[in-house]
Structures are given as structure tokens and as C-alpha cells.
Design brief:
Layout (H helix, E strand, L loop, with lengths): L1 E8 L3 H12 L4 E5 L28 H11 L4 H5 L1 H17 L13 E4 L5 E4 L21 E7 L7 H9 L8 E7 L16 H7 L3 H14 L5 E5 L7 H12 L2 E5 L6 H16 L3 E4 L3 E9 L2 E9 L7 E8 L10 E3 L2 E3 L43 E2 L2 E2 L3 E3 L15 H33 L3 H8 L1
Parallel strand pairs: 1-2, 1-12, 2-9, 5-6, 5-7, 7-8, 12-17
Antiparallel strand pairs: 3-4, 10-11, 11-12, 13-14, 15-16
Length: 460
């Protein structure tokens, strides 16, 4: 039998944010994760709120918009938290990542900024890694450069600079900028592959850990770019030391870089996951990797329903005792939600799902609809404290965080990272405060009980 104060189910952004905050608050914490998280598919930037959930319009300052959600979208997770709480959680996350070697930056105005995507589109976000070129709302950064050099690697199929160049050229703010595509070569003979055009970013990152290959890239980049240009290149430096290698690349070439996340695996996203996982282990957390919670045992105490223990696929008959659980198992992609033909369910505890109607109402008729697809808003029913419901009864010691929650669309609203961090942080604090209150009540109860000498004196 294993005992913890908190077990977090899910090793994604919400799960690790919650787990790390729990450890900071003095709680013995474990994370159960079945493997790689959705961060392997992410941009590596943290979106807070790019579009209004009510109007669909682009948002300049996400916190101004969050302040309005209590009036217009009261069930949105941000509306339950409030803009000050969201900002507090993001500031905490930023400090945490910087402490562990991955600084994330935002605009001084607290507005969103734009980053250039691999297809040459502009994506609105709030926190980005050091070698992501931030374009503010006025695009003033464009005044500081001469050319944009789009770099491809021969044989690397996940970034096509000609496509990005054509898209950027149609944007009015880039009209007077020279856009140039160049190709660099690598010795790929050491890569195990089906053919010379099928290696991925993780393969290139392994090559560039070799001194000779790294030096070759530096030399080729110096020949095509100057310090007055921006070099837009796919993120190909990762594998545990990506940021260190980017810093070395910038130091040796004296060039300004913009890393573009490519098709999975996204090395920018992996950097965040690696940093969170390392921070959790260094802080003393217990990581049950490659395992998954299969079910839990509930107990009814009067009108209160609580979770007594958990069972996992690997541990089988050995229960994990825990005082609290954070369910951060994700949405459909991470198997936190399960969709059948006419039913959506939460597969671990069979929690209540928000009313979803018939299947014909789950989606818009047009795949690229301007409006959010309804299924993106599906999730577990929770109260204002993010405690889930089971058969319409609140579970007292379970909390939910991240994309398992209902009433928001992380894609259409551009808020996936912000909701994950802020809800994970918030429920961790709620657990810590509940534990502290219980300990205080227990101490108070003991202090009010007469000791043995007092009892004897009463008898005399």
C-alpha cells in the first residue's frame, strides 16, 4: 500500500503545474502519467486568451477580456478564477520555468504578441521561449530588421519555407521586407531512415549534438545571413539541451533567430515537458511514468462522497491511498474523455459530463467553421471549486484541471495553456488550504481535550 497527500492523474501542463504547486505547499505528491503528453504536439508558447469566447474577435490584452467573462461567460474556467488569479498563476509558472533554466517572456504591456508559424501565418500568444521572435500589436519589431531568411534543411520534410514565404509576402506588414529562402545541408548518413527524405526534427536534433555537424550549420548560416536579419528556422535543437544549443548557435553566429515549431514531435513543446518533469523530480515528487489509473474506490460518509483509494494498471491489486486527487487527464486526444457513437464519458471514475445533446449537435457542418465545434467544449461537470460530480453528487476530495474541464474551447479561444496552468495552480492551493484547515482543526480538538492529570484532578 502506498500513501500520498495528493495524486495527480496526468503528466501534461495542467498536471505538472498542479503537482509542482502541491509540493511547494508541503504536500507529498505523485503524478501518474501513461506516457508522452500533448506538449509534444504544442507550439512551446503559452496561449492565455487570443479570441473572445463571446464575440470571437481577436483579443489584445487577455486579462482585460478575462475580467469581462464573469458577465458574459460565467461558466468559463477563467470566469471562476478571475483575472487576478489567472495572472498570479502565470507569474508563478514563469518564475518556476526561469528557475529551472527555461525563461518565458511576454510583452511589457501584458498584451498578446504574434509569432510566425511554420506556414507563415501569425499566431497570437502570451508567453514565448527566448528564441521566438515576438511581434507586438504594432509590429514595431519589423523596423529593426532588414531581411527575413527562411531556412530549410535538405531532406527535412516538416518545414517548407517556400510556403511560409508566400504566406508572409501576402501580409501587408511584411510588404516592404525582403523574404529569402535558403537551404542548408547535413550529413544524414548516420540517421536510420527509410529514405533520405523522411527524417524528423528529433533526428536532426541528434545530429546537431555532434560538434562537426553543429559547426557546419553555423558556417552555412553565417554565409547567408547578417546580424540585421531574422533567421526563421524550424526548431531542430532539443533532445534535453535544446535551449543551451540555441544559445551556443546565437553566440557563434551573432544572428537573430526565430524558432518555428514543426510537425510532432515539437521540440519547443518537449522543452517545456522536460523542464517540468525535471523540476518535479528534483523537488521530491514521485513520478509513476508509463502507468495509468484504472479506477477508484469511493466511500459515502453521510451526505459526502469521497475517493478512498486508487488502482493502476501496473500496481493492479495494490491500492494507492491518497487524501486528494487532481484529475488532469486531458480531453479526447489524451484519453481523458472517451467518445462513443452516441455517448461521451470520463473513463476512470465515470464522472458526469456536461449536457451534450444528440450526436448531430456535437459538431458544425463545416469543418473549418468560424464558430467553435461544440464537442471542443465538452468536459466534466464541476462546481465553482472545480470539484467534479458523480451521479449529480460532488466528490469532496477530487479536483479537475486543464482540458478535462467543460465550457471552453482551447483552440478557438486560444487559451489552452493558460487554463491548464491557472486551474492546476488554483486547485493545488485549494487542496493545501483544505489540508491546513483539517490539521488546524485536529490540533484544536486535541488541545481542548483534558490530559490525564486534569482528569485525575476532576475525580478528586
Amino acid at each position: 500500500m502506498i500513501d500520498y497527500d495528493v495524486v495527480v492523474i496526468g503528466g501534461g501542463l495542467a498536471g505538472f503545474s498542479s503537482a509542482l504547486r502541491c509540493i511547494e505547499r508541503g504536500l507529498k505528491t505523485a503524478v501518474v502519467s501513461h506516457g508522452q503528453s500533448a506538449m509534444h504536439f504544442s507550439s512551446g508558447s503559452i496561449d492565455v486568451l487570443s479570441h473572445s469566447p463571446t464575440t470571437g474577435e481577436a483579443v489584445s490584452n487577455p486579462f482585460d477580456e478575462i475580467a469581462e467573462l464573469a458577465k458574459t461567460s460565467s461558466l468559463h474556467p477563467y470566469a471562476k478564477l478571475g483575472e487576478k488569479r489567472v495572472f498570479e498563476s502565470l507569474s508563478w509558472f514563469q518564475q518556476l520555468m526561469s528557475k529551472h533554466g527555461l525563461p518565458l517572456k511576454h510583452q511589457g504591456s501584458l498584451d498578446n504578441h504574434y509569432r510566425v508559424s511554420s506556414l507563415g501565418t501569425l499566431k497570437s500568444t502570451w508567453l514565448s521561449q527566448p528564441y521566438v521572435w515576438q511581434l507586438d500589436q504594432n509590429f514595431s519589431a519589423l523596423n529593426q530588421i532588414n531581411r527575413i531568411i527562411l531556412v530549410s534543411i535538405e531532406g527535412f520534410r516538416d518545414f517548407q519555407p517556400e510556403i511560409a514565404k508566400a504566406k508572409l509576402a501576402r501580409l501587408p506588414m511584411f510588404a516592404d521586407k525582403e523574404l529569402l529562402t535558403v537551404k542548408i545541408t547535413l550529413d544524414t548518413s548516420g540517421i536510420a531512415q527509410r529514405n533520405c527524405h523522411e527524417f524528423r526534427s528529433i533526428d536532426v536534433s541528434r545530429l546537431l549534438r555532434q560538434e562537426a555537424d553543429f559547426a557546419s550549420v553555423c558556417s552555412q548560416l553565417r554565409q547567408v545571413a547578417t546580424p540585421n536579419d531574422v533567421v526563421l528556422m524550424p526548431s531542430i535543437l532539443g533532445n534535453g539541451d535544446g535551449l543551451a544549443l540555441m544559445e551556443k548557435l546565437a553566440a557563434e553566429t551573432h544572428l537573430k533567430f526565430h524558432e518555428v515549431p514543426t510537425m510532432p514531435p515539437s521540440l519547443l513543446g518537449i522543452r517545456i515537458e522536460d523542464t517540468l518533469r525535471r523540476a518535479f523530480i528534483e523537488a521530491g515528487g514521485a513520478l509513476h511514468i508509463g502507468d495509468e489509473v484504472t479506477h477508484g474506490v469511493f466511500k459515502q460518509n453521510g451526505d459526502q462522497l469521497s475517493l478512498a483509494c486508487l488502482y493502476t494498471r501496473k500496481m493492479r491489486t495494490v491500492p494507492i491511498n491518497t487524501k486528494f486527487v487532481v484529475l488532469a487527464s486531458g480531453s479526447f486526444f489524451s484519453k481523458g474523455l472517451k467518445a462513443e457513437h452516441h455517448k461521451v464519458s470520463e473513463p476512470i471514475f465515470d464522472l458526469d459530463i456536461e449536457d451534450i445533446g444528440g450526436r448531430e449537435s456535437w459538431y458544425s457542418k463545416h469543418f473549418f467553421s468560424r464558430k467553435s465545434h461544440p464537442f471542443m467544449n465538452f468536459g466534466v461537470s464541476t462546481n465553482r471549486e472545480f470539484k467534479p460530480l458523480k451521479a449529480q453528487q460532488c466528490i469532496d476530495n477530487v479536483y479537475c484541471a486543464g482540458s478535462i474541464l467543460a465550457h471552453y474551447d482551447p483552440i478557438a479561444h486560444g487559451c489552452g495553456g493558460g487554463v491548464a496552468i491557472s486551474t492546476g495552480f488554483h486547485v493545488a492551493d485549494a487542496i493545501a488550504e483544505s489540508q491546513e484547515s483539517a490539521c488546524y482543526a485536529q490540533k484544536l480538538s486535541h488541545s481542548q481535550q483534558p490530559n490525564q492529570s486534569q482528569k485525575k484532578g476532576a475525580l478528586v
